[in-house]
Amino acid sequence: xxxTTTSVGRDTLLTTYGSFFENVSYSGSYRVVVTVDPAxxxxxxxxxxxxxxxxxxxxxxxxxxxxxxxxLPKQIGLQGALSLLFAHAKTPVGVHVEDDWRFTAxxxxxxxxxxxxxxxxxxxxxxxxxxxxxxxxxxxxxxQEVAGTSGRLLRLNRSSWAAHYLPLCPHLHRTxxxxxxxxxxxxxxxxxQCPDERVRERVLAEQARxxxxxxxxxDVVAEDLGREWLVRRARYKAIxxxxxxxxxxxxxxxxxxxxxxxxxxxxxxRSRAEGLIPGMTQTFQKRPENFADGEYPVYAERGRGSILWxxxxxxxxxxxxxxxxxxxxxxxxxxxxxxxxRLGRGVLLSLPAQTEITAAEELVRAVPGAEMVRFLKxxxxxxxxxxxxxxxxxxxxxxxxxxxxxxxxQLGGPSAGVPVSAARLGERFTLDSPDDDVRFLAAVxxxxxxxxxxxxxxxYHRVLSAEFLDELRAACDELGCxxxxxxxxxxxxxxxxxxxxxxxxxxxILCFSKGIAGGMPLAAVAGPRHLMDKFAxxxxxxxxxxxxxxxxxxxxxxxxxxxxxxxxxxxxxxxQLREGVNGHAVRLGFGDIMTGYDPxxxxxxxxxxxVHNRIARQFLAEMARRGFLLRRDxxxxxxxxxxxxxxDAVSASAEALGALAx
Length: 662
Prior knowledge:
The protein is α/β, with parallel strands linked by helices.
């Protein structure tokens, strides 16, 4: 009999096989076929232990006559591994186990083989605690006992969720039925779904349940080890290949700065967009004039790691990184895999989903001071919701804003489409210099007890002083207004809690977006329970706040931040970029042109915005010609940038600044 196993090289396989041979009886011999797919980043020492164990199987267990191991050079995913196992299958009856199960009770394979043929069944599942959870085999309207079977088997009725599929959890099967049925399903169904769901979909579509009837053991005889292993290693379920090839996180081929970029397709798409989309783009900050109009790509095709390709086929090392949202890089494997896995379950459901709870728990664990959270879709929504909460909590109307907090902020009067009566309730300040800090604090004192909230987003070109922040916090406490920190850009970049945690200032309310989910559309308002509870009294509502894919990706992103040296990495590379570029800028007479926070260095040629914009656009054009995308203000380092890329960018900046100086 063949025992087929899909493995990623983790040491749970030792428990799987050890418990199998301890609990499972069979009168014949075994041929073991194992694929080792390099998913989850399993350490080489662990993989080596597994390979040695497999090599020793015939010595440990004399029933094993042959062991076939296919160790794969790159990840091919569960579908590819199953296809390889099918190609190796030889025996009429087989047992399939993955590498993360523990057998916990006796199993008589001889009796089950007899039942398999007597009942004309395709598969007998060795029932396990994971499938049995929630009472699947306890509700009389879902299950019936099969008469005359030596193994006391069960059959699920059509009303059961599991009645129509051939599960990949431990089972016995007839190879001539099982292998082609699964192979056909994998070939004809959506590759983004997990194989179990795809087989179920195919069996239903072909009305083949009677032909592929599945039986289950009455007793629970196995338990899942995989989820515990994933949690312990901070890994995530991967059912598909991470990439068709190696991740592209290296440097691009450096271009010459002598020739302008070929941007014909970008120009053509721009012409079409101008007649269809007001302002030509969905995001103000992505308009061509904000970069280097005519000399900088307008439309992107795809991204991977820290590399972006435009529609004309040019590749760039990207420091725009989706305006800072792609904090883990483009197409991060952990994020992409969780999207593929979850997509088949629906994106938005009619009722609240458990994911909303687990995502909230994950965020509260990650952010100091957060006890409750409300999810929304955009940073603008989060900031607007925080103002609604502050006004409700304090009973006051007036707010002071430092920085930009999205288009919902009700400032600007009729020229901005805002009623004058609403615009009078708020004022916006810039904090470009220490003198601005003094003026802002004076305004806070002057408005006094009118204030519901102060909303602060740190300027990107300078680091606010501890004295200013301490005085602002003290003023809020004295006046009874709330301090709202807009961490849309700085959250999960300077620190998990953002600027406030980084600089040691306590916020009453925190607003997050961008890096919270590594680029998926998600935002959040978080804070202590006594404030956040008040949301229940407000009509702050969003249909899409419970969208499942973004919440699942958020959980993955937060775990990635926690398990890696992400914060140190992006700070070190940002400092390397800033110091390297400034070294060339000073030498060429520009002075320091990169300032601000290490993980997000800000380009600043002159305090006069008109002068800065003019020079910055020329610099961005020169850098784009050489294969590097930057913004004319704040730029972003991602988890996938490398020191070699920074060195290349610094070298390119010397050429670009030299061209400007000339």
